[in-house]
Write a structure and sequence with these properties.
Blueprint (H helix, E strand, L loop, with lengths): L1 E8 L4 H10 L3 E3 L2 E8 L2 E8 L4 E7 L5 H5 L4 E4 L1 E2 L2 E2 L1 E2 L1 H11 L3 E3 L7 E5 L4 E11 L3 E8 L2 E8 L3 E2 L1
Parallel strand pairs: 3-10
Antiparallel strand pairs: 1-5, 1-6, 1-9, 2-5, 3-4, 7-8, 11-12, 11-15, 12-13, 13-14
Amino acid sequence: MENWYLVMCKPRQEERAKANLTNQGIEAFYPKLTTEKLVKGRRTVKQLALFPNYLFVRLKLNSGNFSAVKNTRGIGGFVSYGASYQVVPTSLIEQLQSKCSQTVESTMPKAGDVVSVNNDSFKSIQAIYKEPDGDMRSILLINLLNKQIEMSVDNKDIES
């Protein structure tokens, strides 16, 4: 019978450990979260580990190669509970695999969100976020003289 076990990785080495385990024929999984952020005014999409420094491996209880996993580059060791290694329910792994394949978390404003504009022309002016305008700019609706005007603004000048 095969079980999933929780393994601790060395800092920021989840991808390396997973690749090394896969090369040895050992099934490994670590859930990743896709996020969208503003970095230096540019919209970027990154994948981050949902549980940093941890991954899951699938091994047979009696014939699994536990020592090979422990000695793999990027692995710190098994997470244990007393004298036995921590077993993770298969149903939990299946849920994580299905959720992580469709999850995108965004720190960017969404259409209709109220934001604040802070640049040379406008100081702390409230606006409504409309849509992105490329990677570096966004279109906002600003209320000027009781009329909403569309304006393209640098992303670095927008505060949520």
